[in-house]
Amino acid sequence: MISSSEYGSHSWELLVEVDQHEEVQKEFLLQVTGDLHIGGVMLKLVEKIKISQDWSDYALWWEQKKCWLLKTHWTLDKCGVQADAKLIFTPQHKMLRLRLPNMKTVRLKVSFSSVVFKAVSDICKILNIRRSEELSLLKQLEDALKKKKKKDKNSKEPVTEDILNLCDSPVSSGLSGSPGLYSKTMTPIYDPISGAPASSTITWFSDSPLTEQNCSILALSHSNCSPETLAEMYQPRTLADKAKLNAGWLDSSRSLMEQGIQEDDQLLLRFKYYTFFDLNPKYDAVRINQIYEQARWAILLEEIDCTEEEMLIFAALQAYHVSKLSLSSEAQDFTCESEVDEVEAALSNLEVTLEGGNTSNILEDITDIPKLADNLRLVRPRKLSLKAIKSYWFVFKDTSVSYFKNKESAQGEPIEKLNLKGCEVVPDVNVAAKKFGIKLLIPVADGMNEVYLRCENENQYARWMAACVLASKGKTMADSSYHPEVHKILSFLKMKNWTMSSQAVSDPESIDMKPECFVSLRYTKKYKPKQLAARILEAHQNVSQMTLVEAKLHFIQAWQSLPEFGLSYYIVRFKGSKKDDVLGVSYNRLIRIDIATGDPITTWRFSNMKQWNVNWEIRQVAIEFDQNVSIAFTCLSADCKIIHEYIGGYIFLSTRSKDQNETLDEDLFHKLTGGQE
């Protein structure tokens, strides 16, 4: 018989499962009421378990609703928990395997209850990577997993993966990372020449799992993969394949558990946003190396297209500087302060920021806007006929290019004036063949107007190319980033400009190099190893004097110079369209691309965007731009939340400045990326 007092109390039984590895009772029935708060439920449960241990990291997970009950002051009624709920009392920090951009796997404890944005921040503290907002977690592609399983099945010996275990980390135990690792006023923690941990400051790692040896694994490049290994990895062949690569990004506003990630699962840690802010060799050896590795694998697996000339430059930078110097740098100890100062000064212009530095000179920017005037050749593609090539007198002023019949007629009306704001600028260069072209895709009402400019030499090309790049962003040549842009273009052309040296390539066999490890499969099929080795040695002459960190920074800059750099692709269906298109999302624009030909159709700049929103019911993204331009599309290759987060994320990153400290406005990030689903 139930007493009247018990019957009137409205108590009920709640089943809670305890996630314990030891041999203890797994499930407990608790007598609770709706007005009991979550903290009270956990207290009752711990009293009933009767095991003396630290339960502070444990929390309640609601299995059916896929959510954490972390607000301990909320009552069961307020949370909506009733007698049919299945709750699991489980640790918030669990083991996770992360595949880094350098293809090394680390195993560490991560918060499965924090939102992914915060979890990535904690992971980066462990790995000593600044600017964690540029990275995120990515689920491995199913096609890549299928290929891996097939490889494991075919191999006679079981594959044992070398995993770096960082599970003793103070950060992964729920504590905050050492602020000393991030302080700009402290002694440099890396050697700016070799990228190795500075021996005098390795004590900074004493409270972190990053010992000197572990740090070297993350900050230095090691052995290259064989062509056979490369062949077994997933390589996108089409734009649709490239779109698959971006489908697995996790939602930054939800926790790992909420997104179905289980303990000891493997995820990819990757740079998601291609705006590498404030790179500094003194503090960023791990970050620079991981960016370099992400770039290297993107090129080797042909996730980004490049010319044969560019591929050889990338191979030359990899083959000697990064591979050979990495192996020798572990035994070196550069402690000379004067050397450090010299390299700092030399690399001050090498900071890899897409917009050029933020150090704008106000007086320089308000003076008369400079102009360019030169004889260039204009090439217009014509349907059903050969290209028409003709020389004109070109004048570049503000963000527009005008051309005239000759220099004398430049005072009158131009034949045509091209406004380059919002256009796509694509280099069309072959240094060996003395071809210096600039391809302009200028937005017009019904698509893109294609125009080619041909320059006479490297210097002319660098000046005009830099002016076109700035104009496409709405900037003029008076902007402080113009001269650094010219310098960057010239340094890249200089790397490409090699001549055959009989001494350098007389006996490629005498040099210990496997050239097929440094180029994509397309070129290993096209050339024999001897031919590749000779061509890489040719290209190497222009990069042979660089230090290890310089070589990596040059590699990153060369990667940034590729036309497709920073584009993340998605298959979408635009409102009113009857066919699928590809949408390219970059740090400053969206590009609509024809899925069959790969040609850009229209470009929309973020600087012209007034607002964007998502209709969560029909999963449609709608964006409104200046001049009453509006677009709407549904995403077919991924959840629309991923594109929504990409746009908001890039806008959030554009608000960063060097004057700020490195603490981030996490609330602003979630406002811009979270949505109201």
From TrEMBL:
Record has Disulfide bond as a keyword: no
Cellular location(s): Cell junction; Cell projection
GO CC entries: cell projection; focal adhesion
Residue stretches making up the PH domain: 377-473
One of the record's GO molecular function terms: integrin binding
Pfam families: FERM_M, Kindlin_2_N
Biological process per Gene Ontology, one example term: cell-matrix adhesion
Keyword terms of this UniProt record: Cell adhesion, Cell junction, Cell projection
Coiled-coil annotated residue ranges, if any: none
Record family assignment: Belongs to the kindlin family.
PANTHER family assigned: FERMITIN 2-RELATED, FERMITIN FAMILY HOMOLOG 1
Identification of the protein by name: FERM1 protein
Native source organism of the sequence: Ibidorhyncha struthersii
